[in-house]
Design goal:
CATH architecture of chain B: 3-Layer(aba) Sandwich
Strand order of the largest sheet of chain B: 2-1-3-4-5
Largest interface: A-B, 44 and 34 residues
Shape of chain A: rod-shaped
Number of domains of chain A: 5
CATH topology of the largest domain in chain A: Beta-Lactamase
Order of helices and strands of chain B: EHEHEHEHHEH
CATH superfamily of the largest domain in chain A: PAS domain
Strand content of chain B: 15-25%
Number of helices of chain A: 15
Structural class of chain B: alpha/beta
Oligomer: heterodimer
Strand order of the largest sheet of chain A: 6-5-9-8-7
Helix content of chain A: 40-55%
CATH superfamily of chain B: Response regulator
Radius of gyration of chain B: 15 Å
Chain lengths: ~625, ~150
């Protein structure tokens, strides 16, 4: 409202000032012109009037009627306000006739106003053949027009019988009449007053008209615009002007509408983006907390509320350390943040409102402004308490499964052995009954073999269970593998398996226990030969076991590869291939071979893995570190 | 004429033992040491009964079993399966596996899975299984139950 009033009043004042100056100026000019012409016509008339009186006096002088002259002068001035004074003057000096009020006789000085009419003139010496006048101020200060009409020394005057005038002076005297200019001046004053009144009235009218005009043409539309902008600033972005005007205000309203529509579109876009991002943060199940550079909690999402039991009102503004089970953990994380680019999946512990400790994975990073200056920290934490518990449970159940596997494996092995013992006993008993010595011997051999195998099983179990001592030496692995190949070739030949060695000379010597590695590698080769024995080959297909060694890509390991095209393994078998007492064979294996191999390789800091599919062979790969096991590793 | 019984097992001791038991009881045993050899022997002379070990190289007992059951020529030969893992069939009968399954016993599970699949095909009967170590009397009782003296 104030703005509008100010604008209207400023415009009003300016227009009124201009109007006032214009009216006053025109009034002044017209009044001046009017006064000028009134004075000029009055002068012309008064001069003519004075000259007429002079002519009348001339006649009376010729007839020497001095009383007539006086009477004329009295009559002329009697009923008129015009005449202030009327005098008949002889020239060069001296007052001859009488005026209505003045005193006859006496002399006038050159500086007397009457004399000054002519004597002040430059051409005074040439005489004054015409009537002159001058405006002087009367005794009361009013303006007076003093007219001097010359009485010319005419031939009649010189030739008159009454008295003799010489012909030399051109002027015999003057008729001096002073006319008051008061009526004209009063008229001018009246006019000035009228003009002032007119100006005031016009001003009043103008102000009222302007007020009305401004209000209607300017203030209302501007007020509308102001109201509109108020709607917009109040957030009512769907506000639009009606647009029924076609003037500049209408253009302005249209621009406003376009602008508001754009603002609305931007605002909605911004809001949808903000809602989207905010929704992600708010609805994330993770604990999302931001903190100020001073370490006070600034935002706390719903996930954090649910996981930690605090409401955001309780924690915002509090130190972020209150969330940590050990408050120093946050300092450590922040210190790491300053050293590295960020803290990723850092395992730490939070404490809930009611004191429960939660295991979390914390990812911490700096929040930065556009210039990259840190303006706080941003932490996302995942509550892994349950996962951790589940993992422990899983480890536990895996241990149980391993034990179960071991038990089943042993049971399986023992049952086969018992079968041999039972068979041997039966053969002996039946042989005795039939007196069949050969059968008794066979039974006895069977019994002995069974006992031997039980002994071997017990021995292997002890082997597996005992602490192995690793006697490290630097050896040429290729040489060792070649020896293993030679040792197993007779068995392979007997089983009709082609055992190929593709070994590389000049590999770096590796630090290992040669006896253990010999045992482990032999076991893998034997296992491969067995796998071939278990497969039913199609015609044209030959069982093959290939033994290879090579340097790993990074040069830190020597790799032993044993590939066979035997029976292969199901996923089930592959999963358990290194499990103790897991065996798919019954007669020869007791299921410790590959388990023991895996343990030996681990003891050397190496790795063993297998790729296989049922009926499509298997490839075992052993990575042995050139420099032996890590000294810290047992 | 004595009834012919084929004993198939890769463990030579078992084959020897069962052959003696059978011969002592008046049967004529024929030995084979893997699935392929077993199939060959069956083709040579159709036996009255087959004693088949489950776990064998070349061709496992289950594979051979399935092959025979699907062959019109041999589908009627009774088969007695030998297993080293006891109680599988009982567990399947009791349906214990669905409630009290031992999650860690993978060998048992693998066997159970096979037996269950075969049962669904209508191939498995309870009397077909014999656990190791084999008791001679129990063995003969089973044989007599299947083919008589």
């Amino acid at each position: 409202m104030g703005v509008r009033s100010k604008l209207v009043w400023k415009l009003g004042a300016a227009v009124v000032a201009i109007m006032t100056v214009a009216i006053a100026l025109s009034g002044y000019v017209s009044n001046h012109i009017c006064a000028h012409y009134s004075l000029e016509s009055a002068r012309a008339f008064l001069r003519f009037n004075t000259e007429s009186v002079v002519k009348g006096i001339g006649r009376l002088m010729m007839s020497r009627d001095n009383s007539g002259i006086e009477q004329l002068l009295v009559e002329v001035s009697r009923d008129s306000n015009v005449y202030g004074e009327i005098r008949l003057l002889s020239h060069p000096a001296g007052e001859v006739a009488v005026s209505r009020f003045g005193s006859a006789g006496g002399t006038l000085a050159v500086h007397d106003h009457v004399c000054a009419v002519c004597h002040a003139r430059d051409n005074h010496a040439e005489g004054i053949p015409v009537t002159v006048d001058k405006i002087i101020h009367g005794r009361d200060g009013s303006r007076v027009l003093s007219v001097m009409a010359p009485i010319i020394n005419e031939p009649g005057c010189r030739n008159a019988a009454c008295h003799a005038h010489t012909s030399s002076p051109p002027i015999l005297g003057f008729l001096n009449a002073d006319y008051s200019l008061h009526p004209i001046d009063a008229n001018v004053s009246d006019r000035v007053a009228l003009i002032v009144l007119t100006v005031l009235a016009s001003l009043l009218l103008g102000v009222v008209a302007l007020r009305f005009m401004f209000t209607r043409l300017l203030a209302r539309p501007i007020n509308g615009l102001i109201q509109g902008t108020k709607h917009i600033t109040a957030g009512q972005l769907d506000f639009r002007f009606d647009q029924n005007r076609h003037d500049e205000i209408g253009v302005l309203e249209k621009s406003f509408n376009v602008m508001t529509a754009r603002i609305q579109a931007h605002w909605e876009e911004l809001r949808s983006v903000t809602d989207y991002l905010g929704g992600i943060l708010e609805n994330s199940a993770d604990i999302i907390v931001t903190a100020t550079p001073e370490g006070c909690i600034e935002t706390f999402n719903r996930g954090a509320e649910e996981a930690l039991g605090y409401s955001r009102a309780e924690v915002i503004g509090q130190r972020a350390e209150i969330l940590f089970a050990d408050p120093r953990d946050r300092d450590h994380a922040i210190a790491r943040l300053e050293d590295d680019a960020g803290v990723k999946n850092h395992e730490t512990r939070f404490v809930t409102k009611n004191g429960q400790v939660r295991n979390v994975l914390l990812t911490l990073s700096y929040l930065r402004d556009r210039e990259g200056n840190p303006i706080g920290t941003f932490g996302i934490s995942k509550d892994i308490t349950q996962e951790k518990a589940l993992h422990q449970e899983l480890v536990h159940s895996q241990k149980l499964a391993a034990i179960g596997q071991v038990v089943t494996g042993i049971q399986h092995g023992i049952k086969n052995l018992l079968n041999s013992l039972k068979g041997g006993a039966y053969l002996i008993r039946s042989g005795i009954g039939k007196d069949d010595m050969r059968q008794i011997e066979e039974g006895s051999a069977m019994l002995e073999e069974g006992v031997e195998r039980i002994g071997a099983l017990a021995h292997h179990m002890l082997d597996y269970a005992k602490e192995w001592k690793v006697d490290l030496q630097r050896i040429d692995l290729t040489e060792l593998l070649r020896k293993i190949g030679d040792l197993n070739r007779p068995v392979a030949t007997e089983q009709e398996v082609a055992l190929r060695c593709d070994l590389v000379d000049g590999l770096p010597a590796i630090l290992c226990d040669p006896k253990l590695i010999h045992m482990a590698a032999t076991d893998i080769v034997v296992n491969a030969l067995d796998a071939c024995a278990w497969k039913e080959y199609r015609s044209g297909e030959c069982p093959v076991v290939a033994l290879k060694d090579y340097l790993s890509e990074n040069g830190d390991f020597v790799v032993i590869e044993v590939r066979d095209n035997g029976c292969g393994m199901s996923d089930e078998v592959k999963r358990n291939v290194f499990t103790p007492f897991f065996s798919t064979k019954k007669a020869r294996g007791i299921g410790l071979g590959l388990a023991l191999t895996a343990r030996i390789i681990k003891m050397h800091g190496g790795e063993i893995g297998v790729e296989s599919e049922p009926d499509r062979g298997a490839t075992f790969r052993v990575h042995l570190p050139i420099n032996g096991p890590d000294p810290e590793q047992k | 004429m004595a009834k012919q019984i084929l004993v198939v097992d890769d463990d030579r001791n078992t084959v020897k033992y069962l052959s003696v038991v059978l011969r002592d009881h008046g049967y004529e045993p024929v030995a084979a040491y893997d699935g392929n050899e077993g199939l060959q022997k069956i083709k040579q002379a159709k036996p009255d009964l087959i004693v088949l070990d489950v776990m064998m190289p070349k061709k496992s007992g289950f594979v051979l079993f399935r092959q025979l059951r699907k062959d019109e020529q041999y589908e009627d030969i009774p088969i007695l399966m030998l297993t080293g893992v006891s109680g599988i069939l009982e567990e399947l009968e009791d349906r214990k596996d669905e409630t009290l399954e031992r999650p860690y016993d993978s060998l048992r599970e693998a066997l159970k899975k096979t037996v269950r699949a075969m049962r669904e095909e209508g191939l498995v009967r309870p009397e077909m299984f014999l656990d190791k170590p084999v008791d001679p009397d129990h063995f003969i009782a089973k044989v007599e139950e299947l083919i008589g003296r």
